[in-house]
């Protein structure tokens, strides 16, 4: 991300040999999507609080869901450091959501579930070759260093939003399964003895 413009490179597998040093050039292309600014809002913990950024990512916190009384500061920050993994690919960007009480201490758990909603675009799903129904709202598990699905994710294709109920705060992102389907086996295989070895064609 440079000046709110997102750059992406295609996934490139790199095999590391015995020497342990490999050089690989990557080409990152600027996308049409701009990274929205973070939003920070002060609300009353006894009231419903809905906070979102310009691209449509929001958190809806019900009244008295936060144990800290009085005013709370809710911040939603778009996060480009949302890494894809071998089994999951992050769609778009992630979002770090934080709440601080009047004492400035971070609040990470809720008394009642809040709803996190993250948007997607047609370009997002097309780039990964998946359908919207394959998208899952996920959270980053700091303990295991992996994305974990939020239960009961709902995909709203009419508004291009994926939502889920959460009882704690961390980083959230939309995740699609990685393409782990092996290629079709070759057909019409022929083997010829060349005298010095064998030639295989298909």
Poorly predicted runs of 5 or more residues: none
Elements, N to C (H/E): EEEEEEEEEHEEEEEEE
Main sheet summary? 7 strands, antiparallel
Strand content: over 45%
Give Rg in angstroms. Answer: 22 Å
> Helix/strand/pairing class, anyone?
mainly beta
Terminal-residue CA separation: 44 Å
How many helices?
A: 1
Mean pLDDT: 83
Shape: elongated
Number of strands: 16
* Multimeric status of the protein: single chain
Portion of residues within helices: under 10%
Give an account of the 3D structure.
The protein has one helix at 122-128; strands spanning 5-8, 29-34, 39-44, 49-52, 58-61, 71-79, 88-100, 106-107, 109-119, 136-141, 146-149, 154-156, 161-168, 171-177, 190-193, 198-201. Strand 6 (71-79) and strand 7 form a beta hairpin. The chain is mostly beta strands and 202 residues long. The longest helix has 7 residues, at 122-128. The model has no long low-confidence stretch (mean pLDDT 83).
């Amino acid at each position: 991300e440079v000046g709110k413009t997102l750059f992406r490179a295609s996934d490139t597998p790199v095999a590391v040999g015995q020497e342990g040093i490999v050089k690989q050039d990557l080409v990152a292309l600027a996308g049409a999507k701009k990274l929205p600014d973070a939003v920070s809002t002060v609300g009353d913990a006894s009231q419903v609080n809905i906070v979102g950024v310009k691209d449509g990512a929001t958190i809806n916190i019900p009244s008295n869901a936060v144990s800290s009384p009085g005013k709370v500061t809710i911040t939603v920050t778009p996060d480009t450091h949302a890494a894809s993994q071998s089994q999951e690919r992050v769609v778009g960007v992630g979002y770090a959501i934080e709440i601080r009480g009047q004492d400035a201490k971070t609040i990470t758990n809720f008394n009642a579930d809040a709803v996190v909603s993250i948007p997607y675009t047609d370009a997002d799903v097309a780039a990964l070759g998946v359908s919207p129904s394959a998208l899952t709202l996920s959270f980053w598990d700091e303990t295991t260093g992996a994305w974990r699905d939020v239960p009961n994710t709902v995909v709203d294709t009419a508004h291009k939003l994926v939502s889920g109920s959460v009882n704690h705060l961390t980083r959230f992102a939309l995740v699609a399964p990685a393409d782990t389907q092996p290629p079709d086996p070759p057909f019409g295989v022929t083997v010829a003895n060349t005298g010095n070895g064998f030639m295989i064609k298909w």
